[in-house]
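Model it.
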Amino acid sequence: MTRADAPATLGVMEQAPSAATADTPGVSECLSSGMKTTTAHVGFFLTVWAMTGVPPQILGYVVGLSTGISDQASIKAALEGQNWPALALLAALTTIGMALGLLGYVATVIACARIQRGEAPPSAGDAVLEAVGAIVRVALASALVGVTVVFGFGLLVVPGVYLLVRLSMAGFSSIVEETGPVDAFARSWKLVDGRFTDTLIFMLALFGAAFVGMMGVVAVGGVLKIATSPLGSVGALAAGLAGGALQFLVSAWATAAMTKYFLALAELHPRAAA
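Modeled.
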């Protein structure tokens, strides 16, 4: 190659999109894959929700009846009245709910990854048990990402958004690839390298669609609440459980779509053999 040819050749190389970027899955492909996964396995996801989502709602109902703390106004009254035992019980319930919510999320990712790889999905019980073994690893990875992203937003909005997108695959790596917190952090950074814009667009589209879905669930929940109001607190519990099931399905769809995107990126960048 002559010196005169070099700039032109380099210019072509810089302008040509990489094969990996060209192979990044489109928004519609991921959203439709998520919908197909969820609708084809509704029973599985509802069972996972029954195992991880129903207990906190039932406990919340019982605690509300026993302590009288069931909304923001009653919480404020308890704080002003220094009703520490009731507030401690509420805090414990909130912690349990968050832990079970994370457990349900991890179980959902585990199942979605296997389904989208063409493998037989696990039973709901097996998925939840497997999630129990991964929950500490996932929690640590999520905490590391969360601290980093918050630090970025503390600097300026743009660094925060940049870090949020670059680290968006860390949780999926910790679940699907069973990486540790630091390795999951680095793995996400690698997967999104060169695909920041594609990933940002996908995340915005996914969050927008999920928001619309959740607004639909809220509307349905409002109708159910009115319809069950003659039943008093029992009716409110029934409406809450129905709304919770719908919310979990919308969340499962969004999670399945995100898992599809992660698997596509992971396929383009296979991990080195141990």
